[in-house]
Amino acid sequence: MAIENELRPLDLFNLVDKPLNIFYLIVFYSPLIISFVIFSSVFVYQNLKGVYYLFFLLVSITIRSFYLKNSTKSDEYKEWEQKLNPDCNMYGRFTNYGHSGFNLFVIAFSFMYVCLPMMINKDINYLVFGVFLLFIGGEIGVKYLRIKCIKDVKQILSNISTGALFGTLIVLIFYSLGLSDKLFFNELSSNNEICKAQTKQKFKCTVSNNGQVVGTVMK
């Protein structure tokens, strides 16, 4: 299978002559697709979980961009970066630094942010789980094997691991602050109600025998 020319634009929106571009568009715009779907839960479930997700995703992306901006690049990497296809950088200022692995970072972050609470709660939505894995597989297949937007396996692993680390840390912070109800759980499960006792409660129980009250018990 031939590799796409490094500097020739892919003409991604030409869906008539290149129907495979539909798949390419999904891969290239996967961060926008994933973040939009998760954020839309604000309207579907009438809560702010999607807002929290989007806020911490943007914070994580900003930290990543700041770190990569101030890190030293080797001459070999700079030379490789200059030969990248223009379509490899589609997100402007957030991806000017380390743009080649940006999608993997966002997918891995979103995967852990959404799926880790399900795993902790032992109630996994396997459809959501599988969709994230498909996004990762598509990203590697198109961006690394086909178009060469990603330099090597090290870059794949570093972006997946850092994205997953950010997502995991934020989930654990929510749990440590007692705010786990602000995270995502398996909304499609028949057992998806997450109960949380706010205060200690006592109940007064009446004990009866043959219709006659014989005592009360406090529980």
Helix content: 40-55%
Structure classification: mainly alpha
Calculate Rg over CA atoms: 24 Å
pLDDT average, as an integer? 81
Poorly predicted parts = 1-6, 190-195
DSSP summary: helix tally = 8
Principal-axis shape:
elongated
Please describe the biggest sheet, giving its number of strands, its sense, and whether it closes into a barrel: 2 strands, antiparallel
Strand portion, in percent? 5-15%
Strands across the major sheet, in which order? 1-2
Give me the count of strands: 2
Total tally of structural domains:
1
Q: Give the terminus-to-terminus CA distance.
A: 71 Å
Q: Sketch the topology as an H/E string, one letter per element.
A: HHHHHHHHEE
Description:
The protein starts with 20 loop residues before the first helix and ends with a strand. α6 (102-120) packs antiparallel against α7 and α6 (102-120) runs parallel beside α8 (153-176). Helix content is 53%, strand content 6%. A two-stranded antiparallel ribbon has the order 1-2. It is elongated, with a radius of gyration of 24 Å. It is mainly alpha-helical. It has one domain. It contains eight helices and two strands, in the order ααααααααββ. Residues 1-6 and 190-195 have low confidence and may be disordered.
